[in-house]
Amino acid sequence: SSLWFQAGYLCKYELGDETQAGAFFGRSGDPRIATHVASRFQRDVSLARHEMPLLDQNFDSFPLGAVPKDWTLIPTHAGEYRIDQVDGSHVLRLNEIGYHGAKLCTGFPGWTNYTLTCDFKFLRRDQGASLQLAVYEIGITRYVLSLQDQSAVIINHRVNNDDTPASPRVTLPGNIESGQWWRAEVRVENLETHRTRLSATVWPRDAERPVRPQIVWIDDAGTGGTPLQRGPVAMRVTEAEVAFDNITVTPNDIAKP
Questions:
Q1: Which of 1, 104, 181, 250 is the most exposed place for a label (fewest CB within 10 A)?
Q2: CB atoms within 10 A of CB 29
Q3: Among the residues of 90-220, which ranges form H helices?
């Protein structure tokens, strides 16, 4: 993880490329380095965030059957996830039927103020099937958009180890397990030191994006402790086989074309 910091340092002071330096600084894996970067190299990271997404994967360049190295599965069982072909495209396929569920994680501790977007399709399901999209994933703490049947809810795993809802449960425009492609968008924003806002939008991929998010929820000091402010992303699947495609993590302040 310290190698990313060293690469950023060389880019900044040897090559004079502050944008690429910021991209490398932002990938520092050690939380202590991430804190140092946030205080000393904020301008470089800001430059990079205006130029490039943190993550942009559609898996078309991956060979079928491969296991993407940028993704970590917790826990891991043989053959649980791989690159496969669905509807003519290469996708990341995760099969958790018969297991107790697992999460795919990617990213770096320094990621902050971003929007996670992904396409997903339920290929098979069993009783109790669900999908959770996590942001600010640090160890056992995270914020989660939980999707099941035709409903969505935010779960605050910063203060709860179970799936107690933190937001009202909302009804989606259809059942996510119906076999069609869906798109989900989770935006996380640090409003100030003790407030973090999540906005979630879910819709059929072939339909128009809703004008407003279905869920907006704010974590503040009133819930106990300190709201999460940074961290990677993850997708957790339980009792289902799900295909993922077009996964992006975009800084909220990225320049628009």
A1: 1
A2: 16
A3: none
Average pLDDT over residues 55-63: 90
Mean pLDDT of 60-65: 91
Residues 6 or more apart in contact with residue 162 via CB below 8 angstroms = none
pLDDT at 66 over 60: yes
DSSP letter for each residue of 72-96: EEES--TTSEEEEEETTEEEEEEE-
Burial pattern 140-153, b for ≥16 Cβ within 10 A else e, equals ebbbbbbbbeeebb
Residue 7 DSSP SS3? helix
E strand spans, the chain: 55-57, 72-74, 81-86, 89-95, 102-106, 114-138, 141-148, 151-156, 170-171, 182-192, 195-204, 215-220, 233-251
Q: Give the pLDDT band of residue 77 (cuts 50, 70, 90).
A: low
Mean pLDDT of all residues belonging to the chain: 84
Length of the chain: 257
Crossing angle of helices 42-49 and 18-25, in 10° steps, is 100
Range in 30-44, 71-85, 179-193 the model is least confident about: 30-44
Query: What is the token pair recorded at 75?
Result: 């826990």
Beta pairing partners, 154: 145
Taking the CA atoms of the chain, what radius of gyration do you get in angstroms? 18
